[in-house]
Known about the structure:
Low-confidence stretches of chain A: none
Number of helices of chain B: 10
Mean pLDDT of chain A: 86
Largest interface: A-B, 22 and 26 residues
Number of strands of chain B: 18
Helix content of chain A: 10-25%
Structural class of chain A: alpha+beta
Structural class of chain B: alpha/beta
Oligomer: heterodimer
Radius of gyration of chain A: 15 Å
CATH superfamily of the largest domain in chain B: Di-copper center containing domain from catechol oxidase
Largest sheet of chain A: 4 strands, mixed
Distance between the termini of chain A: 29 Å
Strand order of the largest sheet of chain A: 4-1-7-8
Order of helices and strands of chain A: HEEEEHEEEE
Number of strands of chain A: 8
CATH superfamily of chain A: Domain of unknown function DUF5300
Number of domains of chain A: 1
Amino acid sequence: MLIWYCFAVLCFQQGFSFKIVNKTPYAITNIRLYEYDMHIALSPNEASAVKTLSLSPEKAEGSSVLMLFAENTNYGIYIENPQSGKKYTYVIDSIQPKRNNIFISTIIEEQK
Amino acid sequence: MLFYKKLLKSIPLVAVVVFLYQGNSQSIRKNYQEMTTYEKTELVNAFYQLREGEDRITDMSDFHMNYFNFDNIDPNRLDIHFNLPEEPEKEIFLAWHRRFIFEMEQAMQDINPKLTIPYWESSVDQSTTSSLWDEDFMGSFNSNWNLNRNLSSFGTLPTQQEVDNMLAMTDFFEFSDFFERQRPHSGAHRWVAGPMLTSASPRDPVFYLHHAFVDKLWHDWEEMHHSSSYVRTDMIRYDGTYVFDGQTIPLVNPNDIVDSRALGVFYAEDGLATLDNYIVSNTYNPEELFYYQYTIEVGNNFIAPENTTSKMESITEVVLKPGFFAESGANFVAAIDTETTSLLAARSMVKKERKKKPFDDVQLDQVWLWSEGDIDPNDPTVVMQTFPNPFDSKITIKLNKKRDCVIEIYNMTGQLIKQEFFEFTNTLEINNLFGLSSGTYFVKVLGGNGETLVVKKVIKI
């Protein structure tokens, strides 16, 4: 049991990678993901660089939220809990400022 | 029989239904599965009504959204989420949401005083075909409000073991941080999806049922540990600057509402609502109405003072237990909701059976009634004078005969503030009351055997 636990922890510590793509017509700032300030702004149709992180399962569960600012509105949305060895592309498909709606999709790939 | 004679002399106890045409109520919150069909219908109608006109639903949603994690924009700003563990001085998650759903409940009670926000026990009730999602309950909002929920496709709900483990945590901030971030809170947001995934989650009415459960779990934790305490003494939104519908919402100290009783809120479970440690004040409502279709037990320092109005209404039974006090001059009513009862009978609905019948374990002569300044019928020599009243730093109490006694001071929420013991004396001085906030308190004098002699209302200036 202990061996399996250690194996799982080691696997998880390999980390996962992610990037963010802005498909909306709006500039996006103040992007925060897994509680990390990305220190980036994304213009329409711009993508961030790929970043790799290693989080404990509890930290991943508790911080899987994407936050951003666009059109004078502060958006936040829960995202899927990341798994080690995967690559996540979070695509911000649409923002509807009048209705305060945000839609994102997630592309998950195996990490190479 | 003696009890009933006393009761009838002292309290206007009414055993018939009195319809309320105006005013609001305090609340007994219950699992939505314990709501009557009438309550469910009225709740759904209230949500629809609140979306019209001033649109309280969108207003609440916008506020939740704007302050979801506002320090993401400006690190000096306050917000309602994700402050722990690094910024305990900003933490308000549980208290803010307690006040938030209370405000929604108040708006609902303006529509129908019997309404309370029920809770969805997401650690148990996990089926996508549960009656929660029936078209005549939360289901209809999905299509009518374009919510695009996607039940069970994204994330999982908490297990009962997770909830139990969380309730066993002893440090308040560790408890609050775990609660907010992990599945007991975030699980339902993910599992329902649609707006519940986003910071605009209060747009989905099930948000309120979920957060009533979150609030109940905090209530349960506080009942066990008694150690909820915030660094902050004021909360965002309720900072005196927010105006809705022409009304400025006053400042709220999160520490003032760590006990749900401070808002008149009690949680019922498994057919029983226990109302205790509470003083009717009519702070929020001209009549405090506690409504539950199953058993309401009232006792253990539940006090209805003079010049207050309160009502207990059940379909099955209201039990007055030891420690229930109704002052003469209080407008207190215990009633059976005969209209709904007859509807239940007409529809052949099954009432929830409880193992114990009313008064099975209650000695009727132990139910205390009291009246400010009245003479205790069991001991007419005990008369209490309290001075000064209003008081500043000291209260002196004179009894007209020497005895062993205990003085207890309670605040308006029924919380015991101070307790002092005295041996064979008739002059009782309680000093060092500088630290008490201004307001109304109750001084209770107990005899040497723990029996209540008299209770008196005092005011701190």
